[in-house]
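Please check this today:
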Amino acid sequence: MPDKPARGYEIAPSVLWTDRVMYYVIKIGGLSIITAVLAIFLFIFWQIWPLFQPAKVVPDASWALPPGDYIAMGADEWSEYPFALTRDGRLLFIRTVENGAIEERPLPLPAGEKISSVFYHPKRQELVLGTDRGTLHVIEIGYSTRFEGDRRTVLAEPRITLSVPLGVPSHPILLGDLDGLGGHRLAAALQRIDGEYRLTAALLTQRRTLVGAGNWTLTRTWDLTRELSSEPLRLMVNERADGLILALSDGTIKYFAREVHDLALRQTFTPFAGDSGTGSIAVVEFLFGDDSVVVADTHGENKIYSLYEQGSAGRRFGLTKQFPSLGAQPSAYAKSLRNKAFLLSGENRASLRFATTERIRWEADLPFEVRLAFLGSKYDSIWLLDASARLHRFTLDDPHPEAGLRAFFGKIWYEGAPEPAFAWQSTGATDDFEPKLSMVPLLLGTIKGTVYAMLFSTPLALLAALYTSQFAHPDIRRLIKPTMEIMASLPSVILGFLAALWLAPLLEQRVPSVLLMLIALPLTACAVGALWNRLPARARRFVRTGYEFLYIAPLLAAVGYVAWQAGPFLESILFVARDPSTGVSIADFRLWWIQTVGLPFEQRNSLVVGFMMGFAVIPIIFTIAEDSLSNVPPAFRSASLALGASRWQTAVKVVLPTASAGIFSALMIGFGRAVGETMIVLMATGNTPIMDFNIFSGMRTLSANIAVELPEAPHNSTLYRALFLGAMLLFLMTFLLNTLAELLRHHLREKFKAI
């Protein structure tokens, strides 16, 4: 058998060894990238998972209280020293950190006065007590801390801070409340005189000077008895002392509003009118902030009415939330002092609900009947007093009640808003502010900025790539391509700086000029191209192939200059509006847009972003598209030209389809660059999370929102995790788009591989 002929060359062992090493290096590198992407995904998912978890409530401890008719309950800031008040005036404090020792303190009421009504304000830790002698007493539960060595002891000292004789003396106050901020307080009292109810309200003022605060003075009183159409059930004053709520047994609620020194009935509404199977009103209480009223009937139906502007009628209550039925007659209510959560309980059922998102955070049947309840001021505990006078404490773990699918992606009816809306506003000026964490405006802003940037960059980048690869002289091509690639190295912050401080003010004054240029330049280019094709060959041969732009560019520059200068003239003809301050008609596109179209016009808007972010995206699309077009085999072009096709026909009908897969990849990479852009959008749009595609309004994108909010977000807070949710949406958006782009690119490559 003849020997196998030897090869004409031998592979060096070092080459084989290097090949094996690089094989494993590349393989490990690819797997590492996949692992890193998966790890990023899992980390972000781990951060957002707690946002969608319900509240956790666990029984903690209980204490037996002395028998009695308990009518109020509260606690200090840390819920270490709760108190309970009995109708006969016993004020009991429970030392929960000292084996439940009970201390009884005398109620600082004048001798001989007895409690006839009670209202507890947990925010200020004040009891408003009505007595049988027609007086309202405000008793503050003053807490203090004493240290003896390493031992810390919480002390309580109840004291009267204000006493107001109201109504007819020596007649018990059946319902009463007093509240207010600053130097104004509003008091209200209901009495029964000779078998008839009498409702009195009074305004108290306190003069404050540099020396200090003076005494409270009764400024004005109102007799509201005529508004009592049936038996009163509940009487409440809001914390701003400008509103009074009266609930009646006929199912109506009356809202009295105070303006300066006048108190008048503004609204009467029936929360459960027309509802089948509803009972009478059982609960009427303010939500934290006193802008919403929680109502429930004897069958457990639960609704929330909030104040908002209703046209010429002013601020009135309207139905904004409706919860599932409690399934029992409510007997106890407690509101959170941290957020819009509230506890509704009745018989042996308790339900923790969150008003903003209209969700039940926790609900359970208990082995006892609930009589009184309150929520710890830190929103970390639930306290329930049962019918046998036993106090139960439950630990509450609910760090993200504001979160949820509806909060992030659904329309929410926020307090003060006339209708449900998608909104992002993470912080506010007061503690009772409702965080607005909808991702929809941010998603819309991301899409909006990307669309306008791609509308500007795509035609310029693709046409430039087509011209450079198919028509430009090689010497010109060697100059254009590096220049375009250098453009990609410009920092985004510089482009954003130029957009905000130079381009935005310029475009604000010259929108008609820009519109003329956007119309005139493409039309001129098309007209010149059509004219060029109609010139005889003997005329075109005087222009060197690939240098035609040297003759067209000056004409385009001249047309652009004329269009820019003609903008004010066009504005004076087409865009005339009435000056709101003088009533004179003036040429002002900005005013015309606002008055005619009815949409806002902001200096930093989507047009600015489209130009500047498009400028940042053009180099990426151009470079990849130009490479794809240049890599089309020269034989394709030669064959097309040999068959009589023009250079333009060859470029459009042969080269462009062949390179379509690469061009599509260029567009997708440019799209990804625009989606993830941060600094340009942050500096050039005003960063306003609004819901419209108006080209003259701003936006806020997911990436810009993360850049703005993350430095101020407390670690592991709802806002902190919501920003990670935004990052997850951005991650999924780019991942899905890139996956789709790769599938389509593969389809295009298979389609044209036989060419």
